[in-house]
Amino acid sequence: MKLKSILLLSASAFAFGSSFAQSNVTTGGQKYTLIEEGTGAWCQYCPDGTQWLQEKIEPTYPRVIVASFHDDYGGIASADGMTITGSPYNPYNTATGYITGFPMGTVDRASYAGSIGLSRTSWNSAMPARNSAAAAFDVKMASIYDPTTRIIQIKVTAKTLVAGTGTWRLNAYITEDSIPSVGTGFAQSSAYGAVGAMSTTGSVSYYAGLGSPISPASKYAHMNVVRAILPANYSRIWGDSTAILTNPKVGDSVVKVYTYTIPAGYTDYRVKVIGLIQKYGAATTDRAIENCIMARVRNMQKNPPLAVGTTAKVVEELTVFPNPATNSINLQCALNTFNPTTTQVNITNVAGQVVLTKEYAAGGSLFMENISLDKLGNGVYFVSLTNSGETTTKQFLVQK
After folding, report:
1. What is the model's pLDDT at position 88?
2. Is 146 found in the same domain as 278?
3. How far apart are CA 377 and CA 383, in angstroms?
C-alpha cells in the first residue's frame, strides 16, 4: 500500500484545481461527535452494537460520525480480516486501555461516569453533553480522488473558535462501508441468531433467526470500517505531531495535506475520509476529540464521473430513513461547499400540496436533522431539500 503524508508549506503546494470535482466540507461552527467503536467479525455481541447505533444513536443525535475499529481480541478469538496494524482498541493494547471488551466504544474519547471506554448501552447516555457542546474548533476538509491512480489528496484545516491552553493535533481516518460478511475473517458471528432473539435496545434483534455466522450474508454488512489512520509514520491514533496548535488564540489555524492510495482490494466508491482535531494531553485520559467532519470518495472524483471543467453539485446524496417512517424521519446529505446557505426542507403529498416547511440556519456541510411527522397521516410523501439554489427530492412512506 502506498501511503504518505505531506506537510503543506504553501497554498500552491496543494494541487487542487477548479476544473476538478473537488469535495469541500466544513463543520461550519457546529459540533460533530465521533463514536470510535471497537468491534470484530468474530464478536458474538457486536451485531447488537450495530443495532444500537442505528436504532438509538443516529435517529436521536443526527450530527454523529462513526469509525469502527476491528480487532482480533489479542489473538484469543479467530482472526478478523479488517484489522489495521496497531489497532488502538485491542483490550491488550495498554497504549490506550480504553476498551475492556466488545462491543465498546468512545464518544469523542471524553470521560463519562469516570470512563472513556463505554459499552453500547452507555453510548446514548454519553451523547447529550458532547452533542450539545459548543464547537471549540472549525474543521474544513477539501479532497479530490483520481479513480485511475486511486489516489486521494486530502487537505484538513482546523481553525480555533475558542482560545485554549494545551496542545491539539490534526488527524485523518480512511473508512470503508458495505464490506460483505463473507468468508474467514469477514463472516459476522452473532449471539442473536435464534428466532425471536431480543436486542438490548428493547426491540427484536435485526438478526433474529439468522444464525451464527449471520446467514444469508446479505443481511449484514460491515460499515464505517477504519482502513487507515493518517499519517502512517507517527503514533497515529494520537494525531499528527507535525500538525499541531499549542495554546491557540481565536483565529489560529493549522493545515495539513495527506495523500492516500486506496488498495486494489477496497471498493473505492464506498470509502470515506474523516478529518478531525483532538487534544493531546500528557495522559491518554486527556486526549478528547474536539471536532470532526466526513466526506465520501464518490463525491470527490476527478474523472469519471465528472468530466474536466464540470462543477460538482452542492447537494449530494440525500438519504431518508427510516422508510417507511412512523413518527419521524432523519435527513442526511453532504453540502459540497465551505459556505452552506440556509437549508430549506419541504414535504409535499401526492397531490403536490406542501404539508410541512422547515428552515435551518447555515451551518456545517453534513446536513443531519430529524423531522417530526406527528401531524402527517399515512401515505406517500416527497421531501425536498434546497441549499445554494439546488434542490434534491426523495420519496418516503408514512405508516403509523
Report:
1. 62
2. yes
3. 15
**Residue 196 belongs to a domain:** no
Cα separation, 382 vs 396, in Å, equals 6
330 and 267 belong to one structural domain: no
97 and 32 in a common domain: yes
Mean pLDDT along residues 255-277? 94
Q: What is the mean pLDDT of the chain?
A: 85
Cα distance between residue 94 and residue 88, in whole Å = 9
**What is the tens place of the pLDDT at every residue in 97-151?**
688 788 999 999 999 999 999 999 999 899 999 988 999 999 999 888 988 899 9
Please indicate, yes or no, whether residues 294 and 319 belong to a single structural domain of this protein.
no
Q: Which three cell numbers stand for residue 54?
A: 442505528
Q: How far, CA to CA in Å, does 356 sit from each of 305, 320, 328? A: 35, 16, 13
Look at residue 242 and tell me whether its pLDDT is greater than 50.
yes
Cβ density class 92-125: b for 16+ within 10 Å, e for less: ebeebebbeebbbbbbbbbebeeebbbbbebbbe
On the 0-12 / 13-18 / 19+ scale of CB atoms within 10 A, 250 is exposed
- Domain containing 388 equals 315-398
Residues 234 and 330 in one domain: no
Angle at 146 between CA 144 and CA 152, to 5 degrees: 50
Mean pLDDT, residues 168-186 = 95
